[in-house]
Amino acid sequence: KLTGPALQPVVTPELVQGRVHLRCSYSPASPEPPVQYRVLWSRLSSHGKREQIHQETTPQPFSHVEMDGANLRLGDTVFCTVTAFRRGTPEQQSLPEDSKGFYAGIKFFPESLEIAEDGKEHLLTVLSTVPIACPGQENSCKITLQLSTEDLGSQAPGPPDIALSACQVDLLPGPCSGGSCAAATVTVTAVTDFARDGNRLSRVSARPVAPRDPLWRAHTPRDVKVTVRDLPTGNCYSFTDPHIITFDGWRYDSYKVGTFLLCRSDARPFEVHVRQWDCGGHRSATACNCGVAAR
């Protein structure tokens, strides 16, 4: 075996003459004597097995493969495997080394969310792990994504349990860093429905809108699953000669006759009025609920 320092292959994206390529870089072995590298490119199939898509032998400490939409498509997870051997003695070779899998395409971060019906906003980032290229249209270069939500929780799907801050986002080209070549953010909020409907599962989907580049046209990004944790609703009461229990448990009596505001939301157009009439006769001043209006 040819021994030496680890090759440590890494897959990164880059543009080559305006086309999206993946680059496999590896640490060169000791320079003497001259060394060749056998680079095997593969991708994960839908069954989770690796399929070989390209192989080459090169003296360079890197190898390129193009995302051509046929052999290599957006949505693929790609690996490169590198073996070093001395020129002229291919039987003396190093052990093959695998890169980590590189997902090429659009994805959400985080990949799943668990939120509660508490009105809080949660950030969801949608990003492209490969550069966005628009040859000949640099001024208006972008990928527009249409976002949608769907309820996955019940037998008969109802309205989604989540709301997004935007229906469309634009991915604009920029330098690649930290696994992202273009990114946009939206906020996700659980719909406060005041219904005890249990924890529900929804999903957020993204679809490229009419991209000119056929590479993007066939791309269906992975969905992100959002679990909405149900919160118990508050209760308040006004009963008999009105005894009142507030949302936070305070108890008191109200013997007045008239129409009163029982409760009102500060955040939503929601309020309840009660009407109390005299029902005690001559013996005592007592009022009873006789009407209610709510919006």
Automatic annotation (TrEMBL):
<dbReference type="GO" id="GO:0009986">
    <property type="term" value="C:cell surface"/>
</dbReference>
<keyword id="KW-1015">Disulfide bond</keyword>
<dbReference type="GO" id="GO:0005576">
    <property type="term" value="C:extracellular region"/>
</dbReference>
<dbReference type="InterPro" id="IPR001846">
    <property type="entry name" value="VWF_type-D"/>
</dbReference>
<dbReference type="InterPro" id="IPR050969">
    <property type="entry name" value="Dev_Signal_Modulators"/>
</dbReference>
<dbReference type="Pfam" id="PF25776">
    <property type="entry name" value="Ig_VWDE"/>
</dbReference>
<protein>
    <submittedName>
        <fullName>VWDE protein</fullName>
    </submittedName>
</protein>
<feature type="domain" description="VWFD">
    <location>
        <begin position="234"/>
        <end position="295"/>
    </location>
</feature>
<keyword id="KW-0732">Signal</keyword>
<dbReference type="GO" id="GO:0005102">
    <property type="term" value="F:signaling receptor binding"/>
</dbReference>
<dbReference type="InterPro" id="IPR057885">
    <property type="entry name" value="Ig_VWDE"/>
</dbReference>
